[in-house]
Amino acid sequence: MGALINLARETYGDRIPENCIAELSAHFPQIKAVIAQAPQDVQDRLEQLAARSGFDLFTLQALRAVYIASLRAVGAFSRLGYVGNITFLRQRGEIHFLPTLREDMTQFWQHYCLGELTIRDIAGNHFDCLEGDGANAIATLLSEAWA
Fold first, then answer.
1. Quick check: 75 pLDDT over 90?
2. I need a surface site. Which of 30, 113, 124, 147 has the fewest CB within 10 A?
């Protein structure tokens, strides 16, 4: 799926049109077969996912809304750079549905930071890096950066 998302980004740039994933899936026969069998309606997809995932439908609808709002906010962001130093805590882990997040975020902070950018790689992915021992490790990194 990551390769398909990357192909969509390479093909369409910053604005990926609706239904292009289904069209580009011809390059990925296994994904094309799954897409062909998947419900076309968002509500139907969420209901199927709720039946299999352990999440209720309301929670999945809320998570989807947050995800969409987050992507829209990122897409609309157009501020000038930050004049100052930044310590960027970059996740080591990957996320299958955002296959280039690590590279994208690195590029963003390199462009946005007009001071010194320090990159510190941390355990976990974008969503779980603050869980368990990761939280203590990040607290230590931040206290060092702010000392």
1. no
2. 147
Band the pLDDT of 90: cuts 50, 70, 90.
Answer: very high
Task: Give the Cα separation of 59 and 50 in Å (integer).
Answer: 9
Tokens of 100: 């280039």
pTM (2 d.p.): 0.65
Q: What pLDDT, on the 0 to 100 scale, is given for residue 115?
A: 95
DSSP secondary structure string for all residues of the chain: -HHHHHHHHHHHTT-PPTTHHHHHGGG-HHHHHHHHHS-SSHHHHHHHHHHHHS--HHHHHHHHHHHHHHHHHHHH--PPPB-S-EEEEEESS-BTTBTTHHHHHHHHHHHHBSS-EEEEEESS-TTTTTSTHHHHHHHHHHHHHT-
| 48 shares a domain with 26 | no
Structural domain that includes position 119: 86-145
Same-domain status, 105 and 135: yes
